[in-house]
Amino acid sequence: MSHPDLEKFSIIGFQEDLVGWFVEHQRELPWRENKDPYRVWVSEIMLQQTRVDTVIPYYTNFMREFPTAEALANADEEKILKAWEGLGYYSRVRNLQSAVREVVEHYEGVVPNNRKEISALKGVGPYTAGAILSIAYDLPEPAVDGNVMRVLSRVLLIKDDIAKPKTRTRFEAILYELISKKNASFFNQGLMELGALVCTPTSPGCLLCPVREHCRAYEQGVQTELPIKSKKKKQQQKNMIALVIKNELGEFLIEKRPDKGLLARLWQFVNFETEKLEQEKVNIEKEISNFLKIDGFESLGPLQEVEHVFSHLKWHIHVYELKVLSAELELSTSQRWVQKQQIEDYAFPVSHQKIIEQQLKMEE
Fold first, then answer.
1. Of these residues, 44, 141, 193, 321, which one is catalytic?
2. Which residues form the HhH-GPD domain (predicted)?
3. What CA–CA distance (Å, rounded) separates 135 from 192?
4. pLDDT score recorded for residue 335
5. Range of weakest confidence among 13-17, 35-39, 91-95, 278-282
6. Domain check: are 15 and 159 in the same one?
7. Which residue range forms the structural domain that includes residue 282?
8. CATH code at position 107
9. pTM: predicted TM-score of the whole model, two decimal places
């Protein structure tokens, strides 16, 4: 019995048109050079919440550093964080390394080729599991992400809210029937590619679409109204003061973030949150003095302002430069003094990389 959403739908015609288009028009991307499951896995983790153009140089470098599952499993965490620096969502790479270690230990370095085992690996959700199984192993498993839900919402005229988990479940059920059993790899990649290049969020290129004759939304002229997606909560804004602290030797003070939470275990300049920046007259030096619990510092003035946007949060960082005597500051176990030429050996979040760039530029 066919899925109700696929009644009177040309499944074979859709498969042939989509796969044929992908064969002709697929982009040359480094992770498409072969179907090595480890390479596919790394690319899919990198591509979560990150644009293809951004990922390409990171992926190329990452593969050079960690060409095999064994290489990544045995790598030092500081090294993998440095290779990931700037991609964000750092828990992705930590989970990836944990899962790859499990593959090396329990599966002799071979990525599992069934949904039960692969889904048990850390950080491998339904989409990633389906992507690896279909792309690398050519198994007819659905891989449902935002791109795929957008394409199928339009093609099948589905008006369910794609932000709701039950909608993803509906699309997975549809895809088990719709996916090409002959070429699952190209079918799933074709759906993703179509969403990235043609069936885009705004102004879809319907005249160039290889599956236009199958598209119910196009037939009714409502393609720009789909998919339906409820709005996210408003971002929270935080005002921060970051301190570029130098000592008498010209070293910089940096600190490691906590083991858990946002940007866990990355390095940063000393910083703190303040609400007082909203007020007009605020004694910044007093704020800094209260935070550091010292008076003996020389303020070299404001350095820059940095804005950084997370999915749920926006940081507005006011950066100040200080000079202190090493003896004045009592360092915690997470803090250390580093030379200017050493600073780039540490993995920093993007917001603090901007501070480093400005600092190095000033010192040239």
1. 44
2. 46-197
3. 11
4. 93
5. 278-282
6. yes
7. 236-363
8. 1.10.340.30
9. 0.81
